[in-house]
Write a structure and sequence with these properties.
With 204 residues, the protein is of the alpha+beta class. It contains nine helices and four strands, in the order βαβαββααααααα. The chain has two domains: 2-71, Glutaredoxin; 84-193, Glutathione S-transferase Yfyf (Class Pi), Chain A, domain 2. The protein has a four-stranded mixed β-sheet with strand order 2-1-3-4. Bound molecules: glutathione.
Length: 204
């Protein structure tokens, strides 16, 4: 199995955390879809990372599909519950974390544009609202619980953790810890796990 990703991609990190938790060996190839000679478009017509290539040579994308595939492999515990109601709840956490992260990614990319080419304040405000409202719901739903969903570590914790990790990396000026003490407590525990500490985004 091969995973194409980049060190700065939060969605690739999500898959790398998942692989480590499931103890699945996988070759990690650092390559963007638009790099000259990149093999990513061969396996994913959208030319995005993460892209997983199975041992049978099939390209899988995007990250929700990849983690669904990986959960059926390896020796580690199931990270996506099998029961329908629980599965939907865990996947909702994932969708929320993915959405918060997407908003953080586009803000981060936009801020690198020259000032005169940047989007309007309205646009920034709309993206920021996705982050603010998303974190508020996560904070409330987590409450005093140890895990985001149920009594065990699941994809919901991975998703929340990678989203918070990306905020630290991509928008470090956003002080989400002070305003979200439940998430801060969760992040401290998650970031100490091997799967998180071995996949951190590069220092800037
Ligand atoms: N929904 C996708 C998002 C993947 C994504 O946006 N990847 C970015 C890197 S973080 C990318 O490859 N962008 C290149 C492009 O859009 O052409 C997933 O969860 O895998």
């Amino acid at each position: 199995m091969k995973l194409y990703g980049t060190p700065g991609s939060p969605f690739a990190r999500k898959v790398r955390i998942f692989l480590e938790e499931k103890r699945i060996p996988c070759e990690y190839i650092v390559q963007r879809g638009r790099d000259p000679g990149s093999r990513v478009p061969e396996f994913n017509p959208l030319a995005k990372v993460p892209t997983l290539v199975t041992d049978a040579g099939k390209g899988l994308y995007d990250s929700p599909v990849i983690v669904e595939y990986l959960d059926a492999q390896g020796e580690g515990p199931r990270l996506i519950p099998e029961s329908f109601a629980e599965r939907i709840e865990v996947r909702r956490w994932e969708a929320l974390a993915d959405g918060v992260t997407e908003a953080a990614v586009v803000i981060n990319h936009e801020l690198r544009e020259p000032k005169d080419k940047q989007r309007s304040q309205d646009w920034y405000g709309r993206q920021q609202l996705k982050i603010d409202r998303g974190l508020a719901v996560m904070e409330k739903d987590l409450g005093a619980n140890e895990f985001c969903f149920g009594e065990h570590f699941t994809l919901a914790d991975i998703a929340t953790g990678y989203a918070l990790g990306y905020l630290d990396f991509g928008l470090p000026e956003q002080d989400w810890r002070t305003t979200h003490p439940n998430l801060a407590r969760l992040a401290k525990r998650l970031f100490a796990r091997k799967s998180f500490s071995e996949t951190t985004h590069p220092q800037k």
